[in-house]
Amino acid sequence: xxxxxxxxxxxxxxxxxxxxxxxxxxxxxxxxxxxxxxxxxxxxxxxxxxxxxxxxxxxxxxxxxxxxxxxxxxxxxxxxxxxxxxxxxxxxxxxxxxxxxxxxxxxxxxxxxxxxxxxxxxxxxxxxxxxxxxxxxxxxxxxxxxxxxxxxxxxxxxxxxxxxxxxxxxxxxxxxxxxxxxxxxxxxxxxxxxxxxxxxxxxxxxxxxxxxxxxxxxxxxxxxxxxxxxxxxxxxxxxxxxxxxxxxxxxxxxxxxxxxxxxxxxxxxxxxxxxxxxxxxxxxxxxxxxxxxxxxxxxxxxxxxxxxxxxxxxxxxx
Length: 318
Fold this sequence. Notes:
Elements: H1 10-34, H2 48-76, H3 85-105, H4 109-112, E1 114-115, E2 123-125, E3 129-132, H5 133-156, H6 171-196, H7 200-222, H8 225-231, E4 248-250, H9 254-261, H10 270-290, E5 296-298, H11 300-317
Antiparallel strand pairs: 1-3, 2-3, 4-5
Helix pairs in contact: 1-5, 1-6, 1-10, 2-3, 2-5, 2-10, 5-10, 6-7, 9-10
């Protein structure tokens, strides 16, 4: 069984793309219409029972999303990476550790269970913690975004989009980048406002954590491969002049940047709720389809140029 997307017209992709972003855009408009107001932040403090129940729900749920996605895409004939059994198992274990971090650092536990004592609506569960429509809706929204992004990801393979440094010469790709960037910046601005509504100390700390994240990546990019060789007391071997270690490029996979982004929508608002679900849906798509891939990888174009020059030198010598 398959579902061919090869004849997807550009206008249809645009409609799907805007529908994907529509809940976030609608929430942004709502926030602008409501004006400035006190915004509660989700508590980072989690009770013992709450932590156990939320983990017992969250970890199997994310594993189910992973399995359903791979099963569905395989039968639809859509793009996903081939994974040997050892990589599947490795991804399961590593994803579990990452998902536990998301559960508490990104305060997702507060999205999927609530204290019975503070429940303001009907909820199901024990006498201490329970789930209501709000909590079930969040899980559904994560699943929805993972599925919807799978459709977009397959569609975009057959659209003439070039999302790279050369995007300015490709109007179709430029439109996609501009729309996505505008929405992300608007969400970030709204969350900065949320943060400062907690007080200046919280606001500056919130922006500081975002700054630290970018600073850590900038440092990692700036450190040269030669520095790591010196740390290891290792030089190029005599028969290895191709400098494979030096041909490194940054490739920020969609699982990676959305994983980090999911840590910041930690406020008790509709926009934060929807944005976090979107980031988590895209994250689980990337992990499920391609795995927890490294962001630093060999620069094959640079390697090809180096190898070509070495081959020319070898021919001249011979």
